[in-house]
Amino acid sequence: MDFQPSADRSMLAETLGRYLQKRYPVEVRHQISSSTAGWSPAHWRELADLGVLGGLVSESAGGFGGEGFDIAAIFEQLGRVIAVEPFLGTLMAARALALIGGHEALMGEVLTGSAMLAFAHEEPTSRYDLTSIRTSAKFDGTEWILTGTKAVVAHVEAADHVLVSARVSGTEGDQTGVGLFLVKRNAPGLSIQGYPLIDGGRAGDLHLVDTPSTLVAEAGYPVIEDAVAAGIVALSWEAVGIMDVTRMATLEYLRTRRQFGVPIGKFQALQHRMATVALEIEQARSAAINAANALQGDRIKRERSISAAKYTIGRAGTLVAEEAIQLHGGMGMTWELPVSHFAKRLTMIGHQLGDEDHHLARFIKLGEAV
Amino acid sequence: MDLDFTMEEEQFRAEVRAFLKAKLPARIADKVRTGKRLTKKDHEEWHAILHERGWLASHWPPEYGGPGWTTAQAHIFDEEVSLAYAPRVVPFGVSMLGPVLIKFGSSAQKKHWLPRILDGSDWWCQGYSEPGAGSDLASLKMSAVRQGSHYLVNGQKTWTTLAQYADMIFCLVRTSTEGKKQAGISFLLIDMKSPGVEVRPIITLEGEHEVNEVFFTNVRVPVENLVGEENMGWTYAKYLLTYERTSEARVGAATAALSFLKQIAQTEQKGGRPLAEDPLFAARIARVEIDLENMKTTNLRVLAGSGSSAAPLELSAMLKIRGTEIRQELASLARIALGPYAQPFVSEALDEDYQGAPIGPDYAAGIAAHYFNERKLSIFAGSNEVQREIITKVSLEL
Ligand SMILES: Cc1cc2nc3c(=O)[nH]c(=O)nc-3n(C[C@H](O)[C@H](O)[C@H](O)COP(=O)(O)OP(=O)(O)OC[C@H]3O[C@@H](n4cnc5c(N)ncnc54)[C@H](O)[C@@H]3O)c2cc1C
Predict the structure, then answer these.
(1) Domains of chain B (ranges plus CATH)?
(2) Average pLDDT for A133-157
(3) B383 Cα distance to chain centroid
(4) What are the Acyl-CoA dehydrogenase/oxidase N-terminal domain coordinates in residue numbering (chain A) (predicted)?
(5) Residues 239-298 of A with CB under 8 A from B
(6) Nearest CA of chain A to the CA of B366: how many Å?
(7) Which residue in A71, A161, A289, A305 is deepest, having the highest Cβ count within 10 Å?
(8) In this predicted structure, what is the pLDDT of residue B20?
(9) Dihedrals φ, ψ of B192, to 5°?
(10) Going by CATH, does the domain composed of A223-368 fall within 1.20.140.10?
């Protein structure tokens, strides 16, 4: 057993970390977040030049990473600066295309940062259930046309191509009959209701009415599940990055804020709270390691580790966020304090790709299958 | 023991309901229900409606304009106004300063200020906390030096809720640095329009302007505005805090929030069924509902036992802790119930005249912001850690 990251991964994490720490301080992050686009094409190009995007997918698809621990290394650093860039959608869509194979040209453009992808799977009523797909796909004799709505699609406005899941056959709840399609951003019948998110990110609802598309996989469900698993590894590590920074900032506050003539860190009630926070973060890190490790493995084992991680991250994330605000007192309630933004992002990670309850139930169900 | 309300009390409930039906503007109730932004005018409008009926200052003695209700009536009223989604009466004048003036104010002060609180002439805010004096309130520094017929006031208050609307602020100020720090504090009423008062906004984490910093530079305050005796302010402040904490039980508000949560859980779907039927989510709702039922009785026991709305210290601490925990949990469950639609947040969508299409379900707009805003409940009015310290000290007799 070896818990040290490989040299390549350490280097990627270090390069990215150095860039973000220097170029992406919280003021810059707020500026980008409040811009109309909600992300920074300039940073995106530079990060592509640094090779960060290549870390998201495997060699066979033109990248040099794509394993659980590659994704972990990248998203942990993104979490440490609460970056609002379109990494999650890019990861999931690119991974799905890589798995399906055969989209070299598009992939090339994506990895150099010249084309943007989004991953549009969840729907307004699907509530994290990956099989709950109502968007329909019909072949009209010459092409596939899609009709339906996709919910809260991260950075969908930024995308040149959206990877959309839709029902080719069967009914809502079936794993079979879910296809994957590429839709061009300017395709007829496509409209987007874009909006800012409470954690500073940006997303939109994607409406499709008889929108022409290209079929990329007819039996798409296993691909979707794999892409979402990778997305959950990413979110878990983003959360780990956020939690580490949040904890350090809170400890620093406990050392410096004085009340009753002493630093508030002297109060045992608060010491024990921080001990619990530390413990929960280490447990969450272990869950994230398990998930990253399982990403390449056998399906049931992979999915159980993924659900275990997302459940753990959801629970620990809320705890860490709430404690950070509470222990900062009134300061914790302010926009001015970076910790409050870390806390918001951490909480909202719980609303992406399945919450605690969803993954707890899923973990139980997957266990029954073993 | 008889926990049922009497027939007269139920009649009173019917009377309150009829009043709310006739008088509470639907426009305002709708905003409260859906977590929209209330304007200063909305607050003033509801304040005036309650005042007209004589039901504004529910816990003031009748000779000062209170309705003379029993504890049970006050409880029923609180429950009904909350369930009807009436706004909470801004507490600073009516619930905080009023009782202090009634107990410790001079007759001239009572005569001048109490009617103005009732008719809404003065919007009050609370100037207790300072940058260096939060939980350790007694270490406050803002100074008031007597110079003939006025005090000269210098210093800063912070976290002052809605100071941007206020005409007046009641402050704890330091009038002496001798002896124990609690011993040199006085309770002073200051006109916000006085030269030398400056209000600067603090934006909260979800982007609202609800609190402020207030700076005082050589502000002259007439000595008539000193409440009670000089250097005795700590006693008055503590008296006020027991009101503040007990009122933070907010049983009515929690009951309304629970009913709203249940509506959401019926509407949201999970696996083709209402979310309310999901065993995990149903258990979450049940836990908080049980907690709330228990607290209702705790609250009534405390109120019945103390015969007024100022409860003994450790009991008011318990109500503050559990009351705020329950409301935080309810806000948290509403957020969780929304699933992915907790994420979108368009601040303007909380304004009355917003024309944009709703994002996701039409009740979703303010829910996540409300959850984050409600984190304040366990911080203000004496943080829940400080409340636990109080319970411990009283029970250990340390
Ligand atoms: C939204 C909001 C509105 C407010 N409105 C008003 C207002 O209108 N007027 C007003 O005067 N004030 C107001 N306050 C201020 C509020 O009362 C203070 O924030 C509160 O007293 C805590 O003080 P602090 O923020 O300085 O935190 P600190 O006292 O610095 O506390 C930081 C942390 O240390 C903990 N702590 C402190 N002492 C101890 C101890 N002895 N043992 C264990 N833990 C401890 C606290 O619980 C907290 O977790 C408001 C605050 C907020 C957030």
Answers:
(1) 7-89 (no CATH), 124-231 (2.40.110.10), 248-396 (1.20.140.10)
(2) 97
(3) 14
(4) 7-101
(5) 258-261, 267, 269-270
(6) 10
(7) A71
(8) 98
(9) -70, -15
(10) yes
The type of residue at B127 is G
Domain with CATH 2.40.110.10 in chain A: 118-218
CB–CB contact A351 B338 (8 Å): yes
Phi, psi of B127 (to 5 degrees): -105, 75
Q: How confident is the model at residue B307 (pLDDT cuts 50, 70, 90)?
A: low
Q: To the nearest whole percent, how much of chain A has pLDDT over 90? A: 96
Q: Would you state the pLDDT for residue B396?
A: 87
Dig out the tokens for B357 from the structure: 């299409």
For position B313, what pLDDT does the model report?
A: 78
The answer to whether the CB of B251 falls within 8 A of the CB of B78 is: yes
| Tens-place pLDDT, residues B121-162 | 999 999 999 999 999 999 999 999 999 999 999 999 999 999
Compute φ and ψ for B141, nearest 5 degrees: -115, -20
Q: In this model, does residue B308 exceed pLDDT 60?
A: no
pLDDT for the residue numbered B151: 98
Residue A327 has which token pair?
């222990």
- Mutational test site, ligand 1, from B136, B379, B391, max ligand atoms within 8 Å of CB: B379
Residue B131, min C-alpha distance to chain A (Å): 10
* Tens-digit pLDDT profile for residues A259-308: 999 999 999 999 999 999 999 999 999 999 999 999 998 999 999 999 99
Location of each CATH 1.10.540.10 domain in chain A = 7-115
The pLDDT tens digits for B335-378 are 999 999 999 999 999 999 899 999 999 999 999 999 999 999 99
Question: What architecture (CATH level 2) is domain A7-115?
Answer: Orthogonal Bundle (1.10)
Cβ contact (<8 Å) for A335 and B207?
yes
User: What is the average pLDDT value for chain B, to the nearest integer?
Assistant: 94
Ligand 1: nearest atom to the Cα of B210: 1
Q: Could you tell me if A131 and A221 are in contact, meaning their C-beta atoms sit under 8 angstroms apart?
A: yes
Tokens encoding B224: 């008539």
Please report which confidence band the pLDDT of residue B244 belongs to, taking 50, 70 and 90 as the band edges.
low
CATH of domain A118-218: 2.40.110.10
Count of Cβ atoms closer than 10 Å to residue B165 Cβ: 17
Nearest CA in chain A to B332: A318
> What are residue B227's DSSP bridge partners?
B187
* Residue B169, strand partner residues: B125, B190
Nearest to B271 among A129, A333, A335 (CB): A129
How much of chain A exceeds pLDDT 70, in percent? 100
Structure confidence at residue B305 (pLDDT): 75
Phi, psi of A333, deg, nearest 5:
-90, 5
| Interchain pair B280, A128: CB under 8 A | no
